[in-house]
Amino acid sequence: MARHIDCNQLTFSLYPFAHEMKMYESYYRDGQWDGGAIVNFHEIRLSPAANILNYGQGIFEGMKAYYSQKGHVVMFRPEENARRFEKSAEKLAIPGMTANKFEKAVVDLVKANIDFIPKSDDGRCSLYLRPVCIGIEALLGVRAAKEYLFYIFGSPVGPYFDKVGIVKLIAKDINRASPHGTGDAKAVCNYPVTMRPKKEAIAQGFNDVIYLDPHHNKYIEEAGAANFFALMDDGSLITPPLGTILPGITRESVIRIAREIYQIKVIERDLSVEEVVQKAKECFVTGTAAIITSVSDIGWKGKTHNINKNEYQLANQLYDKLIGIQLQKENDPFNWVRIIS
Ligand code: PLP
Ligand code: COI
Fold first, then answer.
1. Which of 201, 231, 186 lies closest to 61 in space, CA to CA?
2. pTM of this structure
3. Of 3, 8, 73, 259, which one's alpha carbon is 20 to 30 angstroms from that of 203?
4. pLDDT of 26 above 90
5. By three-state DSSP, how is residue 202 classified?
């Protein structure tokens, strides 16, 4: 019997009844992956010497399944998550993780958890899927593991940030990722460095942190779990270039919507915090969890700068279009929506 899921009660946290849901798991041993299986949600047993626990060989993804306005279960560009997972795996020397294996597992798991997809007209609630792949071989020397676990679990979720749709960010001269490092992969090792700055940001009354470039400590890279955009006084929309940041699927979708649907001039270039606090009329962040969230204020060098000359108009317009496409309320001109059932 399906549980009633009240969208208004959902936050971005693990569902308390996750144990009633299904998960997917597949093991890599003796040089090959098994066929994978859908099983009951369960805890994982690991050796204390497992690679992931000592040396952090692990990658993950984040994606969502929705009930669309047409009554279908849909996902948004799952092939892009599959491609990114494959690339992240290559970067961390995880063998044989193909986009095909990933996509089939995700679709099978969504079908197995259909009762846990919350219904929501505005896209604020959905079934979040978390694919993870970790090195599980017990070892002591630092090297790639010879055994892996690829698993996916799901959770009905609500908005990522407490104050729906608007956040206060603080720019800190802290670098998440270095050039030629792992910043462009969705690797677990990119996140520990964000724990302390985020805790401090919250204690200072902000919701999250803007991380800066590792060369000059002045150009914006991204927020803790989302990419950054600024609408400047001259009407151009600027977002930091790819390189050390995560190539967000929402980022790329927003760039295309802005350029191709609204004919906005979008430029991927270095963007200093100074320029943003002086010349931006609107800022927002994008991500699967964050969707499109407006930034009301940016803390920088001891001052808090209000960035809202445009009354969040562009973020709202892009949000409505993106969610409209994702929920099949509108045409899907880019063929982004995948019908699962
Ligand atoms: N940047 C970071 C560090 C993230 O963790 C995420 C979330 O996945 C994003 C950006 C946004 O990426 P996407 O739009 O693919 O979810
Ligand atoms: C997502 O947006 O799906 C993410 O993975 C962000 C996460 C780190 C909360």
1. 186
2. 0.97
3. 8
4. yes
5. helix
